[in-house]
Amino acid sequence: MAIKRRAKVNPSFSMSSMTDIVFLLLVFFLVTSTLVNPNALKLLLPKSTNQVSAKTMVSISIKHYLQTNTFSYHINGKNTPVPFGDIERLIQSELQEEDEPTLSLHVDKTVPMEQVVNIMNIAKRNQYRIILATAPE
Can you give the pTM of this predicted structure? Predict the structure, then answer.
C-alpha cells in the first residue's frame, strides 16, 4: 500500500513585505538625515571662561546708537567709523597675505542679529574664520 501525501510544501518565500520594510526605513533615514545637519554658518564661538586659541587678525566692532537707531562699524578698535559698504574691501586688504584669515566680531547686546549676519556673510564669502567675542562671566 503506497501512501501519498496530498498537500505538498511550497518552499518559496514572498519578499514583498521585506521590500516594503526596507523602503520605509530608507525614507525614514533620508528624512531624518536632512534634519540632523541644517545649512548653517560654521562659527567658532568661544565660551566666556576660555581663551581663544585662534590668533585674531582683524577685529570688527558694531556699536548701536539707541537714540537714532543707527549702527557704526569699527575695524581694529579705531575710533573712526567705517561705512558698511567699505568693510569687505578693507578686510580683504588686511587679510590677503594670511594663511588662516580670522575675524573677531565684537557686538553690543542691543545690536539686531541682522547686522551680525551681514558681517558673517562677508566672512563666509571670503572663507574667513570668525570668532564671536563674549564678555567673561
Answer: 0.58
